[in-house]
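From the shared-data thread, chain only:
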Amino acid sequence: MGTAEDLFEGQATGMPEPMPRGTALYREGSGPAVVRHLEGYAPFVDFCAAQGARAGELAADPERLIRFLRTAGSQLADDSTLSAAAAVFAGNTIARLRPDAQWAAYEGAPSTVGNRDKAFEVDRLLEALRSADDDAVRGLIDVLSDWAQDEPDEPPARPPVPVRPAAGRPRYVRPDLPTTTYYSRDGEPIPYGRHWGADGPDPDSYSVDSHPERFAGLHVVARALIEHLTAVYDVDVQDDPAHGGELLMQGPGVLQAVKIIPRDSGAAALTIVLTVYPGVMVHAGVLHDFAFPVCGCDSCDETVETTADRLELLVLSVAAGGYSERYPVGRKRWSEYALAAFDGSGSESGQGEPPPASAGRLHDAEVRLREVARGWKPWPLRRS
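Structure, as tokens:
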């Protein structure tokens, strides 16, 4: 009978489903399961016993565990199975330090354990310990101790529930987008959206933007969305390039800026900006900008179709009342947004340092968001 994996809270489980990087966070259901006790550390427990160490005591004392891992580093490095088990054990020990800590997995990246403030890549941690001096070890122990004692921040807000499109109202239909084949310098067609295989992007493709013109169709989509919103909702529409100044992000030049203001003070305004890139930027509510595409470089491999999907989901979901913002959040005074898809397909959220806005603008946003603490309301419908 194998060694029991019962040294940490709850039943040991597998790694959560890897989350995609560089794509929208819309997903069905409630998202990946929370994993605080990861399975796969039994070989390390047996190793500890063979070395005369008590694994249970190491699991309860991160400083003692780190010093043990440093001492045993060469033995662990010689056995890949044992090294992996030690990494799982170390990660579970770290997760035990805080109630909001958990394991996370990302496509194409090492797994981590931590919370929203700090995440530890345990494989790299074990590797670094093998060559770390006393000061570096002491520094790591201090980082873990400070992190463990830090007060937990506020949990992320849940987005409000959007209102489904009303029966009998015009439905948004995406206009036809041009289909064009783009070619590399060698004359080969570039299959955007499926450009890279399992090995990931070519290192030379980062920061290279071969065909930004492939996003020109986003202007067609943006204008169709503006027309739809104007036809369905009771709004004021202001078409003035000066509204491009409402963006908080630095972006390319403004071709057209349209601000759409619902005639309900509890609903979020949208400013849709068509840029010379070509692309679209959207300012939603009071403190958040969204760029389409997020990045047009060759390595990111975005297409006009997938980018239009995200643009439409944002705009239609805000109008449906599926959008909320908070500021300031917690002791760090972060800004936060949450978005539930208008069609029920999923949700996304984001939190971080507030945008580079003036103190006056941040104060006004704080006051305004207090008035809509439960989320922005659905836009009022235009009377038939």
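The CA atoms of residues 103 and 116 lie 11 Å apart.
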